[in-house]
Amino acid sequence: MIKNDLVAAIEKNINLSHSKSVAFVEVILKYLKKGLIETGKIEIRGFGSFRVLNKKTGFGRDIRRKSQIAIPEGKRIKFFCGRELKGLILESEDTQD
Q1: How many CB atoms lie within 10 A of CB 21?
Q2: Residue 46 and residue 50: Cα distance in Å, rounded?
Q3: 28 in a domain, yes or no?
Q4: What pTM was computed for the model?
Q5: Residue 85 placed within a domain
Q6: Which letter does DSSP use for residue 58 in this model?
Q7: Is 72 contained in some domain?
Q8: 11-49 residue pLDDT tens
Q9: What angle do CA 50, 53, 58 make, to 5 degrees?
């Protein structure tokens, strides 16, 4: 699913115009980004949570030059699946087999 699919679903299910549906999705994404930046975590009950984690300094390998390179520390975003969503995904796997 991409952002346009989400906009189309909102248009269809809530009966909003296309421009209002786009604005609706943009506002939600804006506040999700703001939450990650300000608090480092977002929790959506029944769906899951996003957390900003610190990534330690490490070493990698440059394949072309066959040398070791330093990878600087940084941040990454990790998604933790909620129990309800995980159950739905596992149910859908059982029906596909």
Answers
A1: 21
A2: 13
A3: yes
A4: 0.73
A5: no
A6: E
A7: no
A8: 999 999 999 999 999 999 999 999 999 999 999 999 999
A9: 145
**Contact (CB, 8 A) for 30 and 57:** no
Mean residue pLDDT across the chain: 93
Give CA–CA dist 88/82, Å, rounded. 10
pLDDT tier, 92 (very low <50, low <70, confident <90, very high otherwise): confident
CB 55 within 8 A of CB 73: yes
Number of domains in the chain: 1
- By DSSP bridging, strand 74-81 and strand 67-71 are unpaired
Q: Which residue range is the domain that position 2 belongs to? A: 1-39
Sign of the CA dihedral running 28, 33, 34, 38? positive
pLDDT value of residue 97: 58
Write down the residue that tokens 């087999």 correspond to: 97
12 lies in some domain: yes
